[in-house]
Amino acid sequence: METVNSGRPGSFSRRRQPPVIAERLNLLLISAVAVLTLGLLWLGSHLPLGGTLLCGLLMAFVLLTNYALMHEAAHRVLHGQRWLNDLLGSFAGMLFPMSFTLLRFGHAVHHCCNRTDHEMFDYYYPHDRLWLKYGQWYGLISGLYYPLVPLGSILLAVAPALLRSGPFRRARTTAVLFDDFGAPQIRRVRIEVVATAVFWWAMFAWLDLQWQSVLLMYACFGFNWATRQYVTHAFSRRDVMSGAWNMRVSRPMGWILLNGQWDLVHHQQPWLPWTELAKAGQNSEPPVSYWRHYFRQWLGPRPNTEPAPQPLPRMPD
C-alpha cells in the first residue's frame, strides 16, 4: 500500500515501503565522530599553531560526516525510533554547533522551495542589484555563510520575532524560512541552544580546551562545509525536485559525505537513507565532475533564463 512519508522533510514525495535504516552503523558513526571531534579539539588545544591547524584540517572532514548524520536525522532516517532519531540529531547539532530543530524545519523548506526565487543564488534577474547578488554569492561559496548558522540558532531562541520582522520578510531568501516556527518549535530550539551551551561549557572545563584553538579549528570546518553547500545545486535546472546534480567524487570522499554527492537522487527520493543512495543513483542521471563544477562557481552568478518553479506544499510537523 502506498503511504506518504511522515514528517515535513518527506511530505512532498511518496514511497511504497518504509526505508531500511542502518541503525547500528549510524550509532557507531555518531559515536566515532564525537570521539574524533573532541579528541582533535583536545589535541589541537595543546599543540603549537602548526599542529592546531593540522587538527583543524582533519576536523573539517570529520564534521562533514557529522553534518551528513544530522541531515539523516532531519529526514528521520538516522534511527527508526523517532525520539532517538531526534535525540541523536540534537547531539550532532551540538557538535556543529546549531539547533537541530532549526536544521530540520529549515531543510524541509529547502526541499519544498529548491530552485524557486527563495533559493536562487546562482542566477539573477535584470532588476536585481548585482552588487548584492555577487556579494551574496561569493559570501556563500567562500565560507562566510557558516557563522550565520550558529548565530541564527541563538537569534531564533532569544528573539524569534526579529527573524520574522520586515527586513527578513522582504529578503527573498528568508521570506518564508521561519514561517513554520510556532511556539513548540521555538521551545525546542531554546532547549537545544541551552543544552549546547552547557555541553560546550563542560567540554571546555573537562578537556581544558583553548578558545583560540577551538575557533581556528572550527574556522577550518566552517570554510570546508560552507563552500560545499551549494555546489550540488548551482546552475541546475529550475525545478524543485530535479534541480540538483549527482556528482562524481573520490570513494573516500563519498564515505565522508555518506553518499551526499547523490543529491539529485536525494531530492527526488528524500526518504532514502544514505546507504541506499548509490544504488538508486544507477537509475538516475550520470554524475558530473565535482571539481569542474566547483571551480565553475567562482565565475559568478549568471542571468536567469528559466521561469521560477512554484514551491511544493509543506505539511505540519
TrEMBL record:
Transmembrane helix listed as a keyword: yes
One Pfam family name is FA_desaturase
Q: Locate the Fatty acid desaturase domain: which residues?
A: 53-285
The residue ranges crossing the membrane are 21-43, 49-70, 82-100, 144-163
Key word Transmembrane helix present: yes
What InterPro entries does UniProt report for this protein, alphabetically?
Answer: FA_desaturase_dom
Against CDD domains, the record matches this protein to: Membrane-FADS-like
Quick one: signal sequence residues? Answer: none
Identify the domain of life.
Answer: Bacteria
Sorted keywords for this record are: Membrane, Transmembrane, Transmembrane helix
- The protein's name is Fatty acid desaturase
